[in-house]
């Protein structure tokens, strides 16, 4: 009785704080009813966002401070140091020394991340990936804060809190973690249809990359290059991995969450430790200011990409990641990126999502890193000196000498003094801006489906099947039948066949009308058209005592010389002895290894009576085969492929001539998958 009374009294105390939002008008935190919550206040429909937009600032400030101290998004990350070197000068387009000096090696720090999950979530969830690069230049730090998907869910930054609230775990029970297969997210999608293009990417293989080393990076926004003559050009940034762009299968990604939730972290760390330094080429797409309106989409719309066939990507330099961090917290956790960290020659556009980020990132760092001096942390500190009249605050490390801390002054000769553009001072591009103060979206932003269809048209048959399966899984997890119906009706505008197939799979009425008039495709969007190489691929080599020492060693030496990473698996971890006294070190057994940790399998075995065929070995082989991976066998290992009836199947190699086998295996492995095995 006493417990019940106390509980009721506590309920009464808390009742004043319980707010039911359903059926109410939207207001600010001060109770002011707002007539618009979709668009930030801009100077004209395509103009810049205005600082006076109190509603946007209140909404974004509250959102930025929702988590302490973990990042609200991109919480789970992993990073490395490296360097960037330019191929050719871009002085025609920009005065940024970073992009004009080909002899300079610029230090970089890159943080890869998932977006949705908490710091403790797994690496391989279906999600967008962050790809943030800090360039430590002689003119100051430049941050290229990118994703592995070139578009975003929303067009205006005022909607960012909404989309993140929607894809995060549902607030009443904090479920599910690092997943979008729930009602809130898909309800948001169906009622915010500007997300259509991004959703197609999220449902594709791009959202489950094989490795950080094998995924592209995109600056998403349209920025400006500005040259010495103060001429401006629109630019988009791309990172292209030299290993190609490759992905996991959905089943692999799910299994890896349990077997190795640090799969991507381990992959990056180990590659750098063994000297397989990840490389990414930096590419730019450039549009002249005079061509701003010649496309069938608005180049400032963050839900649109610039098709590479229309605006080619020019590769201008290479980044190499060659050093792991010394301390995860001090570097990876404390690094602070900001798209507003620019250098002379790089400027902004009126993309309303970019405009919001220019406010939000600093605001976020203030609470996450404890105050305004986050730039003084070693990982964030520029390599060039900095001088200004900012003082004190939490975490201050600089010991400023002298009595003057204001501008203008005479006591210190009016220093630190502003620098002219000729002296390297930053000057914003003088774009003419005019328009009424409005909360509105430009008419040029209102096509939400054409590029979503372009993406679908660009996919191969296996990639389309994976998208269809992803939709069916995600939407199938939605409990509300109404939301499921809204989603399939929405995506009928992208492709009617896709929507009808998903509708049947998730138990709603297939739409009868829809489709898109768009027939154009962009081959660059399909991962089947990426770089294909066997370099750095992990090969499970299953052998036992008595294996043919000289021949197997010749194969492994050939693979290592060509950049493959063979991993010996045997009955027991330790030294395995073959003929001619050749010894190999088994670092795994079938209890510690799993096929999803490898890109291919090489079956050797040993003497006839070694390592009996059992359910573990059968499952290992079956799973690798079902995941369309290259499988090879020589010597006694050939018998196991015969038992599993894999012989004469695509991507399955049986070898007698070891030199030919080694080469054929590498060619087969370079294909990444053998989609001929997949029933579509």
TrEMBL record:
**GO molecular function terms here?**
catalase activity
Stretch forming the signal peptide: none
Pfam entry (one): Catalase
What does the record give as the reaction this protein catalyses? 2 H2O2 = O2 + 2 H2O
The catalytic activity of this protein is classed by the Enzyme Commission as: 1.11.1.6
Q: Which UniProt keywords apply?
A: Heme, Hydrogen peroxide, Iron, Metal-binding, Oxidoreductase, Peroxidase
Give the similarity note. Answer: Belongs to the catalase family. HPII subfamily.
Task of the protein: Decomposes hydrogen peroxide into water and oxygen; serves to protect cells from the toxic effects of hydrogen peroxide.
Listed name of the protein: Catalase
Q: Which organism is it from?
A: Ornithinibacillus xuwenensis
């Amino acid at each position: 009785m006493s417990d019940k009374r106390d509980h009721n009294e506590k309920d009464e105390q808390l009742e004043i704080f319980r707010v039911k939002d359903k059926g109410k008008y939207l207001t600010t935190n001060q109770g002011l009813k707002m007539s618009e919550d979709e668009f930030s206040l801009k100077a004209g429909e395509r103009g810049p966002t205005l600082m006076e937009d109190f509603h946007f600032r209140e909404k974004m400030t509250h959102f930025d401070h929702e988590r302490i101290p973990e990042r609200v998004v991109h919480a789970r990350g992993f990073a490395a140091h490296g360097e960037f070197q330019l191929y050719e000068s871009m002085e025609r387009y920009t005065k940024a020394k970073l992009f004009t000096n080909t002899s300079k090696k610029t230090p970089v720090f890159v943080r890869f991340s998932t977006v949705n999950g908490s710091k403790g979530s797994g690496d391989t969830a279906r999600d967008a990936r962050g790809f943030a690069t800090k360039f430590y230049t002689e003119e100051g730090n430049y941050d290229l804060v990118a994703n592995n998907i070139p578009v975003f869910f929303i067009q205006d930054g005022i909607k960012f809190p909404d989309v993140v609230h929607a894809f995060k775990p549902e607030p009443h029970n904090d479920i599910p973690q690092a997943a979008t297969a729930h009602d809130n997210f898909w309800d948001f999608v169906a009622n915010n249809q500007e997300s259509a293009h991004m959703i197609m990417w999220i449902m594709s293989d791009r959202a489950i990359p094989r490795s950080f080393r094998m995924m592209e990076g995109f600056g998403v926004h349209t920025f400006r290059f500005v040259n010495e003559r103060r001429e401006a050009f629109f630019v988009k940034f791309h990172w292209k991995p030299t290993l190609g762009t490759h992905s996991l299968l959905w089943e692999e990604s799910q299994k890896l969450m349990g077997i190795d939730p640090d799969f991507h972290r381990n992959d990056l760390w180990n590659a750098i430790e063994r000297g397989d330094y990840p490389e990414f080429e930096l590419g730019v797409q450039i549009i002249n200011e005079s061509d701003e309106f010649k496309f069938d989409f608005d180049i400032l719309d963050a839900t649109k990409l610039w098709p590479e066939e229309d605006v080619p990507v020019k590769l201008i330099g290479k980044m190499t990641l060659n050093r792991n961090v010394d301390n995860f917290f001090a570097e990876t956790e404390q690094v602070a990126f900001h798209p507003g960290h620019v250098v002379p020659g790089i400027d902004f556009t009126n993309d309303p999502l970019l405009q919001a980020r220019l406010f939000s990132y600093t605001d976020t760092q203030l609470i996450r890193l404890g105050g305004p001096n986050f730039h003084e942390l070693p990982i964030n500190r520029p390599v060039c000196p900095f001088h200004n009249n900012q003082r004190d605050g939490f975490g201050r490390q600089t010991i400023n000498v002298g009595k003057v801390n204001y501008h203008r002054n005479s006591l210190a000769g009016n220093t630190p003094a502003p620098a002219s553009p000729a002296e390297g001072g930053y000057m914003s591009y003088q774009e003419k801006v005019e328009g009424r103060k409005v909360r509105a979206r430009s008419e040029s932003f209102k096509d939400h489906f054409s590029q979503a269809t372009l993406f679908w048209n660009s996919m191969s048959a296996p990639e389309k099947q994976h998208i269809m399966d992803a939709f069916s899984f995600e939407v199938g997890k939605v409990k509300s039948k109404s939301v499921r119906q809204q989603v399939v009706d929405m995506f009928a505008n992208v492709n009617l066949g896709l929507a009808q197939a998903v509708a049947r799979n998730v138990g709603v009425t297939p739409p009868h009308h829809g489709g898109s008039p768009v027939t154009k495709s962009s081959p660059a969007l399909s991962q089947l058209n990426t770089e294909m190489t066997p370099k750095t691929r992990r090969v499970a080599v299953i052998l036992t005592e008595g294996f043919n020492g000289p021949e197997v060693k010749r194969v492994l030496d050939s693979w290592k010389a060509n950049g493959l990473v063979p991993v010996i698996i045997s009955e027991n971890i330790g030294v395995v002895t073959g003929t001619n006294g050749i010894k190999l070190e088994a670092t795994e057994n079938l209890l510690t290894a799993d096929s999803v940790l490898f890109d291919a399998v090489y079956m050797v075995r040993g003497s006839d009576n070694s390592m009996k065929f059992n359910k573990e070995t059968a499952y290992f082989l079956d799973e690798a085969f079902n995941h369309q991976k290259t499988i090879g066998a020589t010597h006694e290992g050939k018998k196991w492929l015969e038992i599993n009836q894999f012989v004469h199947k695509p991507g399955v190699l049986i070898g007698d001539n070891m030199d030919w086998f080694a080469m054929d295996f590498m060619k087969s492995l370079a294909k990444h998958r053998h989609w001929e095995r997949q029933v579509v």
